[in-house]
Amino acid sequence: MTTRNGDAASTGLASEETVLPPADPDLVRDLQTFLVEHEYSAALIADGERIELPSEVHRVLKQVARAMARGQAVTVAPVNMRLTTSQAAEMLGVSRQTLVRLLEQRQLPYEQPSRHRLLRLSDVLAYRQRRHVESRMILDEMTRQAAEDGLYGDSREDYEDALRQARRSGT
């Protein structure tokens, strides 16, 4: 397990913790299966004491287990957390220079209490979601246009069905 506090901790802001998946992925797969099979009734039991898991916590645990079962590390961070430009760029999958350009174009809000720019995690997550929705809309339009132009042997309906199936499977 590694802990990343970075600039956030040194400035007294909320910290994040990144946890690597266990060496034995079967342990996480078993947990993931259990959480999926017990969708509406989950509890923790320790030393004879039992506590029900709220559905929100259950949902987060399922996401954590799914990611770790795929061999991915997981970071848990409070939404009101402030990120450095490097942290935000990493989260968005862009270079720091690209993120700075987005900030200068006012695509993302930021604060600059000192020399360094800070972004709210909630703003970065909202931008990432907007970007995802925009990408899907562009892909939908490109597919529709290609099908209408007869560039492929399949019909427009075939492409729309394929897109629906891909979205359901999470790809």
Order of helices and strands: HEHEEHEEHHEHH
Count of alpha/pi helices? 7
Mean pLDDT: 82
Largest sheet: spatial strand order = 1-4
Radius of gyration: 21 Å
Measured by DSSP, the beta-strand proportion falls in 5-15%
* Main sheet overview: 2 strands, antiparallel
What is the total tally of β strands? Answer: 6
Secondary-structure-derived class: mainly alpha
Helix content: 40-55%
| N-to-C CA distance | 29 Å
Seen as an oligomer or otherwise, the chain set is single chain
Low-confidence stretches: 1-13
Anisotropy-based shape: flat
Plain-language structure description:
The chain is 54% helix and 12% strand. The longest helix is centred in the last third of the chain and has 28 residues, at 121-148. The protein is built from seven helices and six strands. It starts with 5 loop residues before the first helix and ends with a helix. A hairpin with a 2-residue loop joins strand 2 (43-46) and strand 3. By secondary structure, the chain is mainly alpha-helical. The chain is flat and about 65 Å long. The strands form three sheets. The protein has a two-stranded antiparallel ribbon with strand order 1-4. Strands 2-3 form a two-stranded antiparallel sheet.
